[in-house]
Structures are given as C-alpha cells and as structure tokens.
Write a structure and sequence with these properties.
heterodimer; A: 184 residues; mainly alpha; 0% strand; B: 175 residues
C-alpha cells in the first residue's frame, strides 16, 4: 500500500545520474539548497513533505545527510543500481574537481583571492540554507505539537548552544512517542 | 607517505564515518586532531588552506577529506580518504531505504518520520543561524545573508548568480 501523498514517477538511471551531477556541480557552500531545488522543484520526484522526511532519515544515519538522501532517492527510483549511479553522479565530479584543485595548489599554493571570494560566497550560501529551511518548515502541519518540537530543538541548539546529542536524546523519544499515539 | 600510515588513516576514517551521526561537521575536529596533532601529516596552516580550497569547489563540503588524501599520497591517498565516506551510505542507508520502500506504512517508521521531521527542521534552522553568525562579523555580512534568503524565497533567478555576486563582492573587499 502506498502513502497517500506519494506518487512515484518512473525515472531512468541516466536521469538519476544527470540530476545528481547537476545538483553537485551547482553546490557551492552546501548541497542541501541545490538538492531540494533539483529533486522537489525542478524534477518533482518527491513532494516537499517526502523530501523533509527523507532528509530526516538521512540526518539520523551516519555520514553526510545529503549523501544519505542521494542514496534513498536513488534506491526509491532505481533500486540498488539506481543508488549507485546517483552516488557516482553526486560524488564523482567533485572528486575529480578537488583533485584538479589539489594539483594547482601543489603548483602555486593557495591564492589570497580564493579566501576573499569564499568569504563573500559563504554569506550568500548561509542565505541559501536559510531559505531552504524556511521552505521546509512550510510543510509542517499547522498544529501546535510539530511546531513546538521544532522551536524547542532550535532554541536548545541554536540559542542555548547545548550539545546536539543530548538535545536529540531528550526530544526525539518524546516526539516519536507522541506521533505514534496521535497516529499522524 | 608510507603505506602503513595510509592504511591507518583509511581505517580511522572508516570507523569515524560509522559514528558520524550529525554529518561532516561533527567529525571535522577529530580529523584535524588525527592529521595535524597526533600524526603531524599536515601543518595547521596546510590543513586550513586545504579546507578552504575544498570549500571553493562545487559539491558537498566533505570533499576536503579527499583533498587531504590527495595532498598526502596522490591518487591512492584520495581513494583512501573517500571510500570510507561511501561505506556507511552504501550499506546502512541502503538497508534502511529498502525497509522504507518495502513497508511505507509501518506505524513505527511513520511515527519516526512524522515525529522527527519537526526536530530536524528546528535543528537545521539552528544550523543556519549559527552559520550566519560564524561567517559574518558585521552588518554587511548579515544583510547579504538575509537579502539572499529573501531573493530566493520571492524571485526565481538562478542562485548561481547570487553566489558569483557574493564572490565578486568578497574579492572587491566589501566584507
């Protein structure tokens, strides 16, 4: 039985490879923004809500969250080989690009302009992340409980700067238990 | 770099990635400790330069580990630091993905997804604000961040232009 909000378009391996190649080659200063743009807005492979849920699972598993998301999306549309070509697209190009940069670095050393350009890009990249989170928050149901948990997590980690592991260990079991009870 | 040192680095990264819940930023301090302090493979300055250089490349931020490997031992070094990143994703994540697709309506998986998604979003909002404060030291930086977010939410333009504009402003010495 399928979830009510999931429609599953058919996607070829080549499309998976090309889409994740495009996502990764646009990803300056963080991949999350581009992953959401490519998967939800451009391709419409996942709904906004499915994307947020896949990301949550990617976050819970060890390793980079967007890499885990890449595996989950690739597996949904193309089985294990779909996951493999998605990961190849997502990590293959940056692998070659950073090695190219490593060659230049060994020849010329780090240029001061790189540092300056990065300092400018990092501020824009922070804005892209902020916009992504705002868009993801829009999918939360307009009810008290999800927003309360979201705000508590933000306040504990973002404002109080408490250790992430303790915050998650305290909030996650309550959130899962209440979602289980409410059957939402 | 001799073969024994490279295998040790490979095994260390393999173990690290399996416990790296919270992503690459969670293991950055330990990678720094391993290559700079414990084994003196890189100087502090080299580490910082390599990290910065990798951030300038497109792709996930974690590729700085590939660049460290390349710098230490060429192609075999790059593979030795990149493969450990792939292993948890291609094992654990695939197994979890399999169960999600097989049992999409299992009540416990559903409760986990629905219950934890708000927490993830709250944590990412915290991450965005912490990042915003870390990359800016005055109002010009904050303004750039907030303007970028507003433009992306309101208009449809290719955000690569915004990144290019940010890079140019940086080179021009605005920040």
């Amino acid at each position: 039985m399928q979830q009510s909000d999931s429609h599953k378009p058919s996607v070829s391996k080549l499309e998976l490879f090309l889409t994740f190649s495009r996502i990764t080659l646009s990803s300056f200063g963080g991949a999350l923004f581009w992953a959401r743009l490519g998967i939800v807005e451009r391709r419409r492979w996942l709904s906004e809500r499915e994307f947020a849920e896949f990301l949550t699972i990617g976050q819970l598993l060890p390793g980079p969250n967007v890499l885990n998301l890449t595996v989950l999306v690739g597996y949904r549309f193309g089985g294990w080989s779909g996951a493999a070509v998605s990961v190849l697209g997502y990590l293959g190009w940056p692998f070659l690009v950073v090695i190219g940069m490593g060659m230049l670095y060994q020849q010329f050393g780090a240029l001061p302009q790189v540092q300056l350009a990065l300092s400018g890009m990092s501020k824009v990249a922070a804005g892209l992340l902020l916009a992504t989170v705002v868009k993801l928050a829009m999918v939360l149901p307009r009810r008290l409980r999800p927003w309360l948990f979201g705000l508590l997590a933000f306040f504990a980690v973002g404002v109080m700067r408490w250790p992430l592991l303790w915050v998650v260990a305290a909030l996650a079991p309550c959130a899962v238990f209440l979602a289980w009870k409410a059957k939402d | 770099m001799e073969r024994g040192g490279l295998s040790a680095l490979f095994l260390h990264l393999m173990a690290l990635w399996f416990v790296a819940v919270g992503g690459p930023s969670a293991i950055l301090p330990d990678i720094h400790r391993y290559v700079v302090d414990a084994h003196q493979l890189l100087s502090n300055r080299e580490f910082a330069e390599i990290y910065t250089l990798a951030q300038a490349a497109p792709g996930p931020n974690v590729m700085y580990t590939t660049l460290i490997g390349w710098h230490l031992a060429g192609w075999s070094g790059a593979l030795a630091t990149t493969i450990p990143l792939l292993v948890p994703a291609m094992t654990l994540t695939l197994v979890v993905g399999h169960f999600i697709e097989r049992y999409p309506d299992a009540p416990i998986l559903r409760a986990i997804r629905r219950g934890l998604t708000p927490i993830t979003i709250g944590l990412m909002f915290a991450g965005a604000t912490v990042l915003m404060r870390a990359v800016s030291h005055d109002w010009r930086g904050y303004l750039t961040t907030v303007l970028t977010a507003a433009i992306v939410l309101r208009l449809t333009c290719n955000p690569l232009w915004l990144l290019a504009a940010g890079a140019l402003l940086g080179i021009a010495g605005v920040f």
